[in-house]
Prior knowledge:
This protein is of the alpha+beta class. It is built from 7 helices and 8 strands, in the order E-H-E-H-H-E-E-H-E-E-E-H-E-H-H. It has a single domain (10-201), classed as Maf protein (Alpha-Beta Complex), CATH 3.90.950.
Amino acid sequence: xxxxxxxxxxxxxxxxxxxxxxxxxxxxxxxxxxxxxxxxxxxxxxxxxxxxxxxxxxxxxxxxxxxxxxxxxxxxxxxxxxxxxxxxxxxxxxxxxxxxxxxxxxxxxxxxxxxxxxxxxxxxxxxxxxxxxxxxxxxxxxxxxxxxxxxxxxxxxxxxxxxxxxxxxxxxxxxxxxxxxxxxxxxxxxxxxxxxxxxxxxxxxxxx
Length: 208
């Protein structure tokens, strides 16, 4: 435990995401990662059928994860849950690619264009959602040739299959992105600054 974190409430991250865990650890937060099972594709399909806006859908998905994790959390635990939804310029929602071929095709679709990453975070305490926030940074990829995409995918490895956009802005994504407008942390997976402020409000952090 760091000197910036109170003993209680204990923090639980309802995600197995290494990127989210690393973001929180770098901010001096000790969290226990407890991923929950959610059929995200099915939920997204239902939200899309109801014509829910992308940002609202990201909050709904994060809330579903948080609710399930909170149902088995201890009374002194504060649950953090998050979700990230990629929306293209023409309003399509893209899922995480399942294969390297799918990753290459998705990067080809996103290349030379700007998309939004709706990144939502929620807090649950005592089984109740006590806070939520969504950031929607705009991310632009430079034009990419098929040959470059092939080399990039080979160099980056299968870890990119866990990234909805097929890139890690803190890593090799620097070679394919041409700009980010908005919350940079949200591109990595969490709206970190609003989240830290909310944790302070919830008494989880020492106020210096």
